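Q: My labmate handed me this sequence with no annotations at all. I'd like to see what the chain might look like in three dimensions before we decide whether it's worth expressing. Could you predict it?
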Amino acid sequence: MNTERSDGLHYLWWLALVCVSGGVLYLLSPILTPFLLAAVIAYICNPIVTRMASHRLSRTVGAILVMLLLSGMFVALIFIMVPLFEEEARRLMDKMPVYLDVLKNHVMPWLEARFNISLQPDMNVLKQAISEHWQSAGGVAAKVLPSLTSGGMAIVEFLVNMLLVPVVLFYLLRDWDMLIQLIDEMIPRYWHQQISVLARETDQILAEFLRGQLSVIVLMSICYITGLWLAGLEFALPIGLVAGILVFVPYLGMIVGLTLATLAAVMQFQDWSGIIPVWIVFGAGQLLEGMLFTPWLVGDRIGLHPVMVIFALMAFGQLFGFFGILLALPVSAVLLVWLRHLHQHYLVSNFYKS
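A: Here is what I predict for the chain of 354 residues:
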């Protein structure tokens, strides 16, 4: 009887701890973004610092070298990508008169005929509306000004968060081993072995997820760029690159890439002969990602049901914003590992058998 009561108290204690931790995270969610991003990067880069430390370099020096390496990669990426996108932007500006002409003479008439609407502005109606609402312009401006102010504050907040990332990242890289040791010392000895096994499985599934997802991003970028180039799309490089990079956010790469590519195809080809190949490229890309690359490189280790994937994306996005969407699947995979262990422990507990 005492053992059953002890097991019940253990479960209640951990349940209370999880609830309190979840509440604290929810309350702190507006400021968590830079810390979560820095923690993810630190988790990925920590093995490099650990390898350097094993060669008699201090973790401080290792953290500095990794920060310099990341900064160099970021600068190199800018120097490589900016000229490419600058060239694409110049081509877009050169083609803009043609695209505007297509929009005016082909797209808008087709939309008007297809949906029975008028897209041509009526200047008399416009003048009348301006004269009627001119006096309320001051009130509108008074309402818009606070919005502009809040928008400016949001930009400042974003910049501050981004500046915090390298600072937090450095300290996490330097003190990672100490933090892990501190957490290890805080674990009750009764739970230590089980939590150690759980931590190893969690580390393994996260490492496999990150390596596999990076490989999927590279392969999908190559596939989209090559496919759109073969389809004759002029802006195959930037659109394919954006679609490939956004693959790490489920469904976003497909939606954004297909939308941009369809708009570009409409402006360039002006008929279905150029649009359909673009759709075929993204359809084939989705099949490759879902049926070959992701199962092969990421595998079924996450084990999330499609409905749970959608729920996880919506829930984490609601709680933590954009970065919540990025973390939804790996965090859900970790939670699944924990729940699996909890279920196994529950089935052998006296509380279940009684």
